[in-house]
Amino acid sequence: MPDFLNTPLFVSNSTFIEELYERFLQNPQSVDESWRDYFREVTNGSGASAQKSASWAQVKSRVIGVAEEALATKGGKGKPDSGAAISQEVLERYAHDSIRAMMMVRAYRVRGHLIANLDPLGLEGNAYHAELDPAQYGFQEADMDREILLDGVLGLKRARLRDIVSILKETYCGNMGVDFMHIQFPEQKSWIQRRIEETRGRPQFTAEQKKDILSMLVEVEAFENFLTVKYPGTKRFSIQGGDAMVPGLKAIMRVAADRGAQEIIFGMPHRGRMNVLTAIMGKPYAELLSMFQGNLDIPEWINASGDVKYHIGTSSDREINGHKLHLSLLSNPSHLEAVNPVVVGKARAKLDIRGASEEKNDGSGSSVMSVLLHGDAAFAGQGSVAETLSLAELRGYRTGGTVHVIVNNQIGFTTSPKYGRFTPYPSDMAKATQAPIFHVNGDDPEAVYFVCQLAADFRQTFKRDAVVDIFCYRKFGHNESDEPMFTQPLMYKEIARHPLPAHIYSDKLIAEGTLTKPEVDAKFAEFKALFEKEYKAGENYKPNKADWLEGQWAGFEPAKNGQDAPEPETGVDAKRLKEVGLAIAGIPKDVNLNSKIVRQLDAKRKMVETGVGFDWATAEALAFGTLLKEDFRVRLSGQDCGRGTFSQRHCVLIDQTNESRYVPLNHLGGPQAVFEVHDSSLSEYAILGFEYGYSLGQPNGLTLWEAQFGDFANGAQVIIDQFIASGEVKWLRMSGLTMLLPHGYEGQGPEHSSARPERFLQLCAEDNMQVANCSTPANYFHILRRQLHRKYRKPLILMTPKSLLRHKLCISSLADMAKGTRFLRVIPETEKLAKDEKIRRVVLTSGKVYYDLFEARAEKSIDDIAIVRVEQYYPFPARELKAELAKYKNAEVVWCQEEPKNMGAWTFINPRIEEVLESLGRRNERVSYAGRTAAASPAAGYLKIHEKEQKALVDVALQPPPGSGLKTVKV
């Protein structure tokens, strides 16, 4: 055998090549396609099945053999040589060149995008990268016309080195840059490589397709110009400079429809929204222009305050390539990237609704696609991007992949990329999820269209995320009244003289003879005339319906006066309660349970059999189980929620021998809906956003998110403020999401005590949501069931217990949950005490501190103080509280809470209690306060301080009357 393998190239790389071959023997897909071609020759195409049948020595021998065959037909025309002997030197060089060229090909696949022509302005980018220089592989200028054996790589049997380099540059360094070699799945890399290399960087379009792309660009530019003339300086966050985004989105829609998608859910920031609303979603131009004129886009009878134009969403049904496609564009706030998890959560709900037969019930289906648009600075900088990307392949959260489109303006407000990130691209974050990234020059709409097609096709094929990074620019400043020359003078000098994409592309089509200039001018005139007509129509535009309560929401209606609305009956037939209770307490035959779990199940069975002693977790399971039997889906998500932070729930039982999972609530016997519980990633922002999105898509199910501790919801404050609290009044989007926030002062310190109820109460108005702090398992049972037994949906914020989970007094009976019972907004004192005329004080309270007060009152044998529980803070139960306080005409009223005075419910509830007193004719009476003093931290970290404070607030609430001779504590 020739000894060319002892040359410097092979000496330095032989170990690497041998390792590649060993990997190939184990799994052919684990190595690059160019190497598979060689190795398959050796194993006669059998790959891993050959195992060690072909040694590494044989592989080296085959390389020489292929070179000999190639030289035998020298010139590449398939004609054998005259038979002259091939010299050892020629043979070695030929094989040596082939391997070096293969390494260079791989380098272009990995690094080619780094020198691609991506920036339309020509301000950024590199024309040289050392690893892409043929000299890096031992080639000199004199070698450029040498013929190289390729054996099928790049679709060529053999080619001159000069031609190989030219093809590689065209394919990987043109107006598209493909960033995909980080993917660890060989079949996905091979798929992308084949699709890219077969076009050689020059996708082909018919004349009609080109005209269609130009028409889209003209529509975008003509509309933007129209708005500039009619509303100069008005904020609209123009897409000009990134116009190719619109044909790119059309490409995604068309591929999705052709590949089986029936619905696409979009999420995006403000930039370009006017064009997406109209050109993509089909919103009438007259309706949008009417909004520019200050008119409402909803009927006047609907109680909503609305939002600015560049935040609104819409939905529509459109026919794409002969397929019906439902489109949803979600409304979003100015908080960039906040809508991301909401979109994927809604997509998951839609997939679940379509059912297990179509989607395998794991979210991996192709019938619903989520598409997220991003700004470059936001994609790189906002944490919600990383949190949402991390959900892509998690059980319970996967949606079959999202197509991400980055409108890369190469600026963030006034911050240049070099100050906003340290990575080459804004998209680099997505590499962690193994997503392919297609960088593209926004001035080449054909390239944009092609890579968007490719991204959508990849998503439908592999059910994974894909990213399109459109390099473009922003014609104006951050908005239309902003002056960008203050901070980016060089960029904006270039932008001022740079033609917009429609003009660049029309000039190209005119030059190649696809269109004439008069035809282009006519197209601009056609759209201008259309917008003038729509403008006139918009002056008198009156919407006759709102974009809400349709589809899955059909049959629901707006809530009416939540404060005074009657409570629906949420009790359940005792027989059904027992059936569900015995099912969840049953010990499965084939599951080897932990002995402690067996004892817990035995205790639950005893509760059901006796009808008494139901604890918090069992009441919750009964609420879930009875809803499931009523065909309502239940979804519980959050950190460690299967077991429960406090080891109380155990709704997922783990086999102690093989760790298989058994979910009792999915084995209730007979027909039932699906119960799912998912231990989430360690994220609050994305997970809460996901569950909110899920609740938008699935109104006929109970969707719950549980925080590990209540104040951990801090990490999701944007979702709470911008979506949960205000989504209905801004965007007419109801949500029945339930938040479970463990709350209570037991000496666990500042971060594990308070769920910050004051923050939620500050957000309460216009019947926007419910906030409650229940004190009994039965009331918890009822408030959960109430979520689905009304004709409307409202978010429910629940302060849930910790120590009460096992408190001997915090129990309920089966009768408390049986037919004829319902949620109690206010729980009165016992009938005996309520009728006692000597009652001198009424202590109003809620949640866990009630039991501290109850036990202290009993211990001190106090019989002249009534304790009334306010179970629901908002909507405030004025009617129920009035009925209770009317019983105690001569008693002073005290509010008792565990939280500091500047926190908790005090500042919210005090004026409302006084309004109730005033309605009873007690005009000048003030409510006294019993609780911790105002503090910067929610709770003390030192146990002794906590205990001292807790005793003091209970003593204040129960202090004896003046003159009794007993020690009093100053309020």
Tell me what the structure shows.
- The protein is α/β, with parallel strands linked by helices and 971 residues long.
- The chain starts with 7 loop residues before the first helix and ends in a 14-residue tail after the last helix.
Strand order of the largest sheet: 3-9-10-8-7-4-6-5
Instruction: Please give the count of helices.
Output: 32
Major beta-sheet overview:
8 strands, mixed
Average pLDDT for all residues: 89
Please indicate the percent range of residues in DSSP E strands (runs of 2 or more): 5-15%
Gap from first CA to last CA: 100 Å
> What is Rg?
34 Å
Question: What proportion of the residues is helical, as a percent range?
Answer: 25-40%
Uncertain segments are 1-12, 44-53, 75-84
User: Structural class given helices, strands, pairing?
Assistant: alpha/beta
List how many beta strands DSSP finds. Answer: 24
Q: Give the CA-based shape.
A: globular
Care to give the gist of this entry?
The protein is an alpha/beta fold and 971 residues long. The chain is built from 32 helices and 24 strands.
Secondary structure elements and their pairing?
Layout: H1 8-26, H2 33-42, H3 56-72, H4 88-111, E1 147-149, E2 158-160, H5 161-172, E3 176-179, H6 186-197, H7 207-230, H8 245-258, E4 263-267, H9 273-280, H10 285-292, E5 314-320, E6 323-329, H11 340-354, H12 356-359, E7 368-375, H13 376-381, H14 383-389, E8 402-408, H15 417-420, E9 437-441, H16 445-462, E10 466-471, H17 489-496, H18 501-511, H19 517-539, H20 574-585, H21 595-610, H22 616-629, E11 633-638, E12 653-654, E13 661-662, E14 675-679, H23 685-697, E15 701-706, H24 717-724, H25 727-731, E16 738-742, H26 757-762, E17 770-772, H27 777-786, E18 796-800, E19 826-827, H28 831-834, E20 841-845, H29 849-859, E21 865-870, E22 872-874, H30 878-885, E23 892-900, H31 906-919, E24 928-932, H32 943-957
Parallel strand pairs: 4-6, 4-7, 7-8, 8-10, 9-10, 11-14, 11-15, 15-16, 16-18, 17-18, 20-21, 20-23, 23-24
Antiparallel strand pairs: 1-2, 3-9, 5-6, 12-13, 17-22, 19-21
